[in-house]
Amino acid sequence: MSLPGEPSLTRRPIIKFSNASFAYNNHFALEKITLNLHEGEFVGVIGPNGSGKTTLLKALLGLIYPNEGSLQIFDCACEALRCRHRARIGYLPQKERTDPNYPITVQEVAMMGRYGAIGLFKRPTRGDREIVLESLDAVNMADKQKKAFGHLSGGEQQRVLIARALSQRPEILLLDEPTTGIDASTQRRLSELICRLHQKYSLTIVFVTHDINMISPIAETLIVLKNRLHAIGRPEEILTKEILSPVYGEEVIVAERDQRPYIIVHDTHNHV
């Protein structure tokens, strides 16, 4: 099937996959991906279990490299993990359990985002502390900077981890299932926060999720993966039975809620 066209954007492309394939142990997780992501674009990445969503993030983080084709970020295609452009990419990993007794404060967690700029064995400067405070303030956590990270709620911890990514002063923000494992009202508030940060900092956002109905109202562009690039376009173009059923199966239901498409699929999520 033909792919829906990419949105008409005048912004410059800063992430370019050109016929890129990525494999583990000679098994392709993503194959022949060609697409451009643009400066300031809010991109949602969806797909069923094992479709290559996490592989896409690993590629953007420089953790894996194309077996075929190429990937360029900020016009750089080098394969060095220490390439300087990596510091311009913020990352929020999947939520993990935190030991409530681990002795680290909110401020110290957020300061981790400055380590790439500070360098090894150097102390944070006043400027670094100001950046961290600004980042915590952006996620409404500045008043809890001295609190133990492990004592926060799940939603508060996600806010602090976003502040850690913001402390890098990134141009690209990668989010890996950021709303998984938290209640619905917290998911909504976190999604609203991410939208505000996108606008405030003009970030390019790549938001990987299995929750189609959460991402579709807020993403500018949706990418559908099934080990290849199955479709890319505006949410209203993508969320149709014709496009989704080859990916999620004929049992996928495309309904309507609040004048928006509402998708029902049977899926579990993993780390491929």
Task: Walk me through the topology.
Elements: E1 13-24, E2 27-38, E3 42-46, H1 53-60, E4 68-73, E5 89-92, H2 106-111, H3 115-118, H4 126-138, H5 154-166, E6 172-176, H6 184-201, E7 204-208, H7 212-215, E8 221-225, E9 229-233, H8 235-238, H9 241-248, E10 253-257, E11 260-264
Parallel strand pairs: 3-7, 3-8, 5-6, 6-7
Antiparallel strand pairs: 1-2, 1-4, 8-9, 10-11
Brief write-up:
The protein is α/β, with parallel strands linked by helices and 272 residues long. 29% of the residues lie in helices and 25% in strands. The strands form 3 sheets. Strands 5-6-7-3-8-9 form a 6-stranded mixed sheet, sandwiched between helices.
Question: What is the string of SSEs from the N terminus onward?
Answer: EEEHEEHHHHEHEHEEHHEE
Radius of gyration: 19 Å
Helix-residue proportion: 25-40%
Overall, the morphology is globular
Q: Mind summarizing the main beta sheet?
A: 6 strands, mixed
Number of helices: 9
Can you identify the CATH superfamily of the domain at 1-74 and 173-179 and 211-272? P-loop containing nucleotide triphosphate hydrolases
Measure the end-to-end span.
24 Å
What does this entry look like structurally?
This protein is α/β, with parallel strands linked by helices and 272 residues long. It has a domain at 1-74 and 173-179 and 211-272: 3-Layer(aba) Sandwich (Rossmann fold), CATH 3.40.50. It has 9 helices and 11 strands. It has a 6-stranded mixed sheet with strand order 5-6-7-3-8-9, with helices on both faces. Helix 6 (184-201) links the parallel strand 6 and strand 7. It starts with 12 loop residues before the first strand and ends in an 8-residue tail after the last strand. Mean pLDDT is 89; it is low at 1-9 and 268-272.
